[in-house]
Write a structure and sequence with these properties.
By secondary structure, the protein is of the alpha/beta class. It has 9 helices and 12 strands. The strands form 3 sheets. Strands 8-9-10-3-11-12 form a 6-stranded mixed sheet, with helices on both faces. The protein has a 4-stranded antiparallel sheet with strand order 2-1-4-5, with helices on one face. α3 runs parallel beside α5. It is globular. The two termini are 36 Å apart.
């Protein structure tokens, strides 16, 4: 479903991501772990072209993202073409990014109407279904300021799902939440995993990676250091940098 080939992202003289290749099958949960500043979030942003890659290729469901072939030649995708590609790739950020002047329902219906061309009635029906699915069936008319952080993040997840994406990218979606709110968001993510949603998740929640992910990749200095099933990588890492990171994380959690 997702293929990342030799990805590089450079900001001026800073190389944030270097020669990263990943492969994610349909229905898999792929966890990306690593220290802050290691390039994890940049990888996700490159996948949906919020950050255009400096080099490499991104493929989603057999189509190359950010590039269009016309007349036997490749050219950069136009803004309208990128919007259509991004419609297939839902993304949820750590800071919610909800419209503060919109209700929960209004936040969810905007993109399906603007990008997918849904009628308002259909968009409202879809939004209600999705908000109910994430446990917010009684919060349709609430503005973000009247919602907890966990509730706001669940609205953001519903908003991404409203585009009917083939892939969900989740970037540290629990890191801005109080500890007691983390579990309600993780619960929604676990439900999506059980329902077969393909997900790439940048996370420090090692229990989630251990229990839910099909594969875990450790990134350090913008490079993939180690990758494997969580039962192997989290329990018996082979690389010294992976071992040191996991020891720090587990000590901090304790």
């Amino acid at each position: 479903m997702v293929e990342v080939r030799n990805l590089k992202k450079q900001f001026g003289s800073l190389v944030a991501v270097e020669d990263v290749s990943l492969s994610v099958k349909a229905g898999e949960v792929f966890a990306i772990i690593g220290a802050s500043g290691s390039g994890k979030s940049t990888i996700l942003k490159c996948i949906n072209f919020l950050e255009p890659p400096t080099a490499g290729e991104i493929w989603v469901d057999g189509r190359r993202v950010g590039v269009v072939q016309t007349g036997g030649r490749l050219r950069p995708a136009r803004a309208s073409e990128l919007r259509l590609s991004r419609a297939e790739i839902g993304m949820v950020f750590q800071n919610f990014n909800l419209f503060p002047h919109f209700t929960a329902l209004q936040n969810v219906i905007e993109a399906p109407m603007a990008v997918r061309g849904l009628s308002r009635r259909d968009a409202v029906d879809l939004a209600k279904e999705l908000l109910d699915r994430v446990g917010l069936g009684d919060k349709f008319d609430e503005h973000p300021r009247r919602l907890s952080g966990g509730q706001q993040q669940r609205v953001a997840i519903a908003r991404a799902l409203a585009m009917r994406p083939k892939v969900m990218l989740m970037d540290e979606v629990t890191s801005a939440l109080d500890p007691e709110l983390v579990e309600e968001v993780l619960g929604v993510m676990k439900t999506l995993a059980r329902d077969g949603m393909t997900m790439l998740v940048v996370t420090h929640e090692m229990a989630f990676a251990r229990d839910v992910a099909n594969s875990v990749v450790f990134v350090d200095g913008g490079r993939v250091v180690e990758q494997g099933p969580p039962s192997e990588l989290l329990r018996a890492p082979q690389e010294a940098r992976t071992k040191a990171f996991l020891q720090r994380i587990l000590r901090t959690d304790a």
